[in-house]
Amino acid sequence: MAKRTAVATVDSESCCPSVLASPLDGPDAAELARGFTALADPVRLRVLSMLAAAPAGEVCVCDFVEPLGKSQPTISHHLKILGEAGLVHGERRGKWVWYSLDRKRLASLRGALDA
Q: How far apart are CA 80 and CA 113, in angstroms?
């Protein structure tokens, strides 16, 4: 049986209000900042792009190393940040972890910028 790695999740209905619709309270602003901070790195944006383009909707951690030109520990660091922000989910299969996007979380961040 496959085991999912621990990743923080966000209820898309409770998060995130539009930044442009009304002033944000502290917790909403902090939650949005966590997601946007995770996106503010070129390597992490490339990881998300690769996941979005993956035909099966998931990518093995080992398949990021060559295209990104980064070491496996560096890739794992970036995936951990994306996972903690709720943007990706990892599933361990044997010695490898397969990652997929959390499209609801991405949609909530996009929605927060809508007026």
A: 25
The answer to whether the beta carbons of residues 14 and 64 sit under 8 Å apart is no
**Three-class secondary structure of residue 66 per DSSP:** helix
Domain assignment present for residue 53? The answer is yes
What is the number of structural domains in the chain? 1
pLDDT of residue 57: 93
Two tokens, residue 114: 């809508």
Give the distance from CA 62 to its chain's centroid.
17
Structural domain boundaries, residue 106: 24-112
pLDDT tens across 24-68, in order?
Answer: 888 888 888 999 999 999 999 999 999 999 999 999 999 999 999
Beta carbons within 8 Å of 83's beta carbon, 6+ residues apart: 5, 7, 8, 89, 90
Q: pLDDT confidence of 113, banded at 50, 70, 90?
A: confident
